[in-house]
Design a protein that fits this description.
By secondary structure, the protein is mostly beta strands. It has one helix and three strands, in the order E-E-E-H. A hairpin with a 5-residue loop joins strand 1 and strand 2. It comes from Tigheibacillus halophilus.
Length: 34
């Protein structure tokens, strides 16, 4: 199970299926507007 976390506000953006546990950093829609 992988998790994508917003690098700005730390909220979980989404989970995705993966063989190993992974955390990726992205930007959620709220933070990307600013």
């Amino acid at each position: 199970m992988g998790t994508i976390i917003c690098q700005d506000c730390q909220q979980v953006i989404e989970h995705y299926e993966d063989e190993k546990v992974t955390i990726l950093y992205g930007t959620c829609s709220e933070c990307s507007h600013s």
